[in-house]
Amino acid sequence: MAKVFLGQVIHTKSLNEFIVYTNGFVAVYDGKIVAEGNDYQLWKNAAASAHFPKDAEIIKMTKEQFLMPGLIDCHIHAPQVAQIGLGLDMPLLDWLNFYTFPLEAKFADQEFAAKVYSRVVESTIKSGTTLASYFGTNNKDSTITLAKEALRQGQRALVGKVCSNCNSPDFYVENTQESVCATKAFVDDMKKLGSDLVKPTITPRFALSCTKELLKALGDIAKENNLHIQVCMNSRVGQYVWTKTHSQAVV
Question: Residue 188 is inside which H or E element, if any?
Answer without folding.
Answer: helix 176-192
